[in-house]
Amino acid sequence: MCSLDSSVMKNVNILSTVKSTIPPLVLYSSQFWADYLVHTPSDGPSDHKLKEGVKLVIYEKLLFWIETMSLLGKAYEVSSILKRALSWKVCFQVISAIYLMLGCQPLNLDNELTLYIHDATRFISVLIISISQSAPHVYLSALPFAPEESHVARKFRLRFPNTFVVAQGKPSQWPMAVFTAEHHQYPVNDVAFSPDKSTFSSRSGDTVCICDSETGHCISGPFKMPECKYRSQAHFSPTGSHILFKCRSYAVVWDIEAGEEQFRVKGSDFAFIHHDGRIASADWFDEDGNLYNSEGGNLDDSEDKGAMRILVKSWDASNGALICNRLLDVNDVGAAQFSPDGHFLAIAKRSESIIELWDLEDSKDLR
Fold it and tell me: What is the CATH number of domain 179-266?
């Protein structure tokens, strides 16, 4: 494709050739065919023709499609497109079962296509580095290094005999490790997953990356947060669109898509309240109103083990505006921690083997 003279040329160096050589219709359909597929109504007989068309793309044209996506700089999107195609296939199976229950002719969709699509996602995720850098290496590197039992490799290896052969050391199955991400120069200090596990954040010192969980591709960042360099904890919003980084006495909320700071909120401990997306923060005070410094929910050592007050605040997660305060009168506090959904606050007594659970949505508080 694109009549490339050499396999050592990187995709970034031939973008003008790609746009002038590949027809616009092919460029568009390569990126959005699965979107049209999942939104196509199912009306019985025509689904058979649609199914055969999908099988033709997946079984016969898969590597050509991956090559096109590589040339477009969209190789990291292949896994998500295949997942959308797989979701259509699952819906197709449900429809087939309904037809069978109604006494109609079943659509007879076997499991081979599902296994093949799953294998194709592993093919792209494990070998993404070579595939994304240079399109010819879909055939020159990815295909030869794919495991012996890979459905994709067994299908296409004989069709491309003029590539090199790995004589020894090739695994028979895909490795348990899905990918290796190398976005940081120094050791990683913190990793956190979004609620739907589709993305994760990684922090190394003051550098943060937001990555796709399927491919390890950095989708936002790297960005610098010098003020949250040490002992910072990350928390995703319920929708996964924002991420909160806990610093020493405040938190920084970042917009993942925009890759920029949205606002800051003060406090010693934080959590997203999952049912409405608010942010909860907590500060610890003694009976004289002196603020304790807390990291990770643990109070600093103090001679005073008497009365304590915890000020819980609710913040608007869209703009950082303060919504309300709530003062909890407690005593002998050794540690406190929000539940992951921000609904409860667990308080451990300092001198007793007691844990109190406070319901922050209930006026009765103690449970």
Answer: 2.110.10.10
